[in-house]
Amino acid sequence: MLPLLSSILLCVLALWLLFGALTALVYQRLRPALLAIDPAQASNLLLAWLALPPFAAVLAACVLYSPDLAQWFVTGHCHFDICGQHGPQSTLAIVPTGLLLAWTAFALGRCLVRQWLPAHRLGKQLRSAGDDSGDFISIESAAPAAFTLGWFRPGIFISTGMQAVCSAAEIDCILHHERAHQKRYDNIRLLMAWLFTAPLPRGWPGTTLEDMKFCCETACDLSAAQRLSREAVAAAIIRVARIQQTASPGASLAFVGGRTEQRVLALLDQPKAPMASELVFVSAAATLLVILALINPVHRTIELLR
Amino acid sequence: MVRRKPVSLSNTLPQLGELELALLKALWRRPEQSAQQLRQQLPGPQQCSLSTIQSTLERLHRKSLVRRKKCGHAFVYCAHLDRAELLGKLLGGVIRQLHTGSLDPILSSFVDFADKIDASTLDRLDELVQKRRLSRLEED
After folding, report:
1. Helix residue spans in A80-139 (DSSP H)
2. ipTM here
3. Nearest Cα to A222, choosing from A236, A234, A239, A208?
4. What pTM did the predictor assign?
């Protein structure tokens, strides 16, 4: 029983890493196409892309270890006198499974401790110490800051320092942008994206995570622009960037680039069309086929390790 | 003899629990109160025993967030930091962490603090926005 259980777990964890590496490699090819579509849809597709390694690993393991499903994907072969369908097992799987399992548990735990707990605690502290004005929670501080914090009931926090230096129209832009984060549950999406990629080396999903965050921000900018205007939101972003730069000049080193510039340019560009739903469906089907095509080689590879 | 933990001398704001914040709020509203008086002021869901209040006040004292003086048999407490100072420290901590990028995944800031953008780039972007506004006006 233990070799079977450890083989199944090893299969899931190893495939998670393998699919993580594959998705990171393939992403470089897909990136231009994804960044050229509507940011709201792109952020959804990017989350799905980041969720692919763990879900594909579980799916592949289910197929591998279910005789009824495996008969469709694994070519017939015998081990001594056993010729029936079987899940690949290895007596050597116990040690690597233990190591991989410990690493995965550590990585997921670290992600929750570093992100879930601090946000939960900070949100509680700011909520109870700030003034709830209905639209947002006002924080009595000269430091200019505006952000959305919290997971299931995210709150909008704007410091009195920011309120003092921004016009009513600029505060309106900030509120519409942050309300879009609230409605889209962007903080939860980003946490999920971090959890899906927690056991992978940080460099692998790094670009995808950055792009997802950028797409979430751009989607919220466009949502605010629907209520106001693209120019008004772009001007508010520039204004807040200037205020933050003045407040902490140490952080504003001189080089061009970054997400702020890209966000403003995205607002001034022509609107991007969403990807056709047929194309999304075909891409998902092709991905599923690739996963299923990997079942047989994975089965044989695990058996080679015995 | 009971050995007490040393009073915190750190400049950074320590972690604060819900009851600790509720007690601080009560002290901001009315300074110089005993544990018994504070207990009576807590809202319904946060009602707890006197010993819990006393140990929470002891923790706040160790964190240098309340001062106390002996008044008869009991201690009388008052907040060491006012509300604005505490919030300033709290937000200062958030902004410091935003600069390092460590809070980046857990909150959505309107403009990324960690983004390093220079004044000339912002001027150029401003010009682009103005041009776009003008062309929009001409179109209308």
Report:
1. 94-111, 117-129
2. 0.78
3. A234
4. 0.84
